Amino acid sequence: MSSSMGDRSCQVANKLGKEYLELAPYLIIVFKQAYGIDPVSGKRINHYYYEQSNSIACGILITALHNAGLVTLTSTPMNAGPAIRGILGRPANEKVQLLLPVGYPAKDATVPDLKR
């Protein structure tokens, strides 16, 4: 496990047991929030199109990471979403949507050399 990952990120990677999550120096965990809670009234506030908005934002983030010379892949929480939420202390209205292990490609990795 990379020492650059925080303790809680290491717990998440260990919980999932996927080597590529443990090897990456950074792990971005994307949450979706289907609803918010009004801080004054405590009432539920529905968020519309949250999955589409998150997905578009993730696509932009992945493009930016690749343009910076970093690599990533998309991974789902594999039924560990509630455990991840608990490890990170996130509220019940947030659900894990996507995991993005991020780092530089391995020396022996096949990475396309795109020229524009």
How much is the radius of gyration in Å?
Answer: 16 Å
**What is the 3D form?**
flat
Q: By helix and strand content, what is the structural category?
A: alpha+beta
Q: Enumerate the spans where pLDDT stays under 50 for 5 or more consecutive residues.
A: 1-5
State the helix count.
Answer: 4
How much is the average pLDDT?
A: 85
Largest sheet: 3 strands, antiparallel
Q: Largest beta sheet: what is the strand line-up? A: 1-5-4
Distance between the termini: 35 Å
Instruction: Kindly estimate the percentage of residues that lie in beta strands according to DSSP.
Output: 15-25%
Count of β-strands: 5
Q: What is the H/E string?
A: HHEEEHEHE
Q: What is the helix content?
A: 25-40%
Structure description:
Strand 2 (35-37) and strand 3 form a beta hairpin. The chain contains four helices and five strands. The chain has helices at residues 7-16, 19-23, 50-67, 81-88, and strands at residues 26-33, 35-37, 44-46, 71-72, 94-103. 35% of the residues lie in helices and 22% in strands. The model is unreliable at 1-5 (pLDDT under 50). The termini are far apart.
What's a quick, concise take on this entry?
This protein is α+β, with helices and mostly antiparallel strands and 116 residues long. It is built from four helices and five strands.
